[in-house]
What does this fold into?
Amino acid sequence: MANQEDNLFKNVIAHAKEYGFIFPSSEIYDGLSAVYDYGQNGAELKNNIKEYWWKFMTMLHENIVGIDAAIFMHPTTWKASGHVDAFNDPMIDNKDSKKRYRADQLVEGYIEKLEEKIEKEVEKAAKRFDNFDRTMFVSTNARVLEYQRKIDDINEKLKEAMGSGNMEAMKQLIIDLEIADPISGSRNWTDVRQFNLMFSTEMGSVADDANKIYLRPETAQGIFVNFLNVQKTGRMKIPFGIAQIGKAFRNEIVARQFIFRMREFEQMEMQFFVKPGEEMQWYESWKEKRMKWHKALGLGDENYRFHDHLNLAHYANAACDIQFNFPMGFRELEGIHSRTDFDLKSHEKYSGKKLQYFDPEDNQNYIPYVVETSIGLDRMFLAVLSSAYKEEKLPDGSERVVLRIPAPLAPNKVAILPLTKKDGLPEKAMEIMNELKFHVRCFYEEKDAIGKRYRRQDAIGTPYCVTVDHQTLQDNTVTIRHRDTMEQERVVIASLKATLIEACSINNILKKI
Ligand code: GAP
It folds into this structure.
């Protein structure tokens, strides 16, 4: 991460703590690595993101329903899903720095550097030539072609090592590429070992192996095991989807970067059950829909891109990520996977229960194929928070930190602020608040100068401030201040409700999709 981005990320993290968005878990005991708590403003923002996703999935699609499955599941679930045998990350330690890394991520970091070199060549050439043609340049420039050849070669070897679980080949790749520990610069590596990411615990009072259960590492399996329950009780016809929001747990080897990679996190997943053979068309359709859902929020179209998976998970026949431009660069925000019939077929085998759909049109039974969309709620939170965070210089020379959170997602929609604590202004302000609070989330504050109060609201992303002054008592008008432009206008109190509902409704974003 470049220094400037590094500082920006540090400021975002500090701001999230100072303003009640995110606290380290059990902080009085010095925290717990890669586990975080959401504060009073964070919980509101998180709930609003959930609502945006849930409404999109279950209200805008008449063929998608939502469930809420338990975190604990029968242990055979994880044998059937492949997680017991294959949910591993390759782990490597540096003997000098004693730091632990994911071996595949070290290699991917090396590839990223080569990609950056290509981008630098492209930028240099674009400056030199007027009618610059990027496609032509990258397909003919000798240096770029050499970098690209190297990237393809490394990717091939990485895919081979990961696919076959050949950890010696993985280590050899790191040695051949002369990859050094990013912190110490040392190349003194241990062997690469496979590490299973599932947390386990015991159920019941006897702690023997038979009672070993897992904290779910993905919410998806709660959907697969309920596939027939939902299909039958909901009389669902293929194609249809089941959506779910819930906690997942992974014992991540490298859990840095704040809430980007956590050990306890939340997923918003949807499994879309389709007729075999139709999965690729649904895969493309869900890629497009999910990208539209993201872009409709207005965080900047340029901050998103697709990234196809080269190393497919054990269950997928096609997969890609929607990457977001986080402070540390473009990283995975959401995964879209064509999971074939792997999960249902495997649960059929392990449970001995039929998990098939009778298609009345074709008059035949089959195991449906599945297209999955899976987004981390905490990553989505980080995307919103980091892109909203702005340090601004104002025309009068002063500075402010503002969270330009899309109004429908903001923790509070409006702050009601009496100009002074006397002359009946607080009572009038409370009267307005008591009317508005049934429609939008309000915040009331009467302490400190009005300018200071505006700044505090800017810092938590409140899109509107309503100021009640002496004129209000005479003509029932108030000042409404807009967070982003800082403009103020005089409006009648009677118009507030409609204005705020209109500007802060999640439906307004949903209508754009
Ligand atoms: N059911 C498929 C599945 O779980 P995944 O790519 O492993 O696929 C899906 O995870 C999404 O969950 C990711 O795109 C990411 O947003 C989020 N996610 C995964 N691991 C995470 C972690 N350790 N911390 C925070 N979010 C995570």
Q: What stands out?
A: The pocket of glycyl-adenosine-5'-phosphate is lined by residues 218, 220, 250, 252, 261-262, 265, 267, 269, 332-335, 372, 374-376, 378-379 (CB under 6 Å). The longest strand covers residues 329-340. DSSP finds 18 helices and 23 strands in the chain.
